[in-house]
């Protein structure tokens, strides 16, 4: 299982890294526009948004828009010592600085608990047509959001380029299922993750 996942990661990360910057920016803009038109986004008062890194779907404009319309914007912070993610509210992009792994994180923490967040916007190496997510291998988001830690009222949305979509990923019970994946081409909705099984 781990070998299969690592093979997929290697191929898809290489492909994603080949997207020219201008094309990545345009596709990210389209993805952001699709996101903010969803009812899940428009009705959420508190939104966790990953801060994009390297060749991920760019989230700067999404974060800026969310702040401008007075949403509570929360970003993930890597606690490397305890191998976990901490959630922290930000009030401006100016609060961010390079931190663990070079990812931009807030210089000052305003801790938020996961159950206080209505919408989680997640990165990935890949998603599949069931809503299964393949991360980078560290398990950070799986530990934060997995094992029924997220309630039915909370939603998980993945952002990805279309080339990251797979028919079916090799998955384990701890892997996250998302409610929706948004690419530059379409919005994919999935059934309630609480009623689904990766083994089905």
Attribute tags:
200 residues; three-stranded mixed β-sheet; disordered C terminus; alpha/beta
Count of domain modules:
1
Radius of gyration of CA atoms, rounded to a whole number:
16 Å
Please provide the ordered H/E string of secondary-structure elements: HHHEHEEEEEEEEHEEEE
Kindly report the name of the CATH homologous superfamily: NagB/RpiA/CoA transferase-like
Structural class: alpha/beta
**CATH topology tier name:** Rossmann fold
Main beta-sheet strand count, sense and barrel state: 8 strands, mixed
Distance between the termini: 17 Å
Strand tally is 13
Major sheet: arrangement of strands: 6-3-2-1-7-10-12-13
Shape: globular
Report the sheet-strand fraction.
15-25%
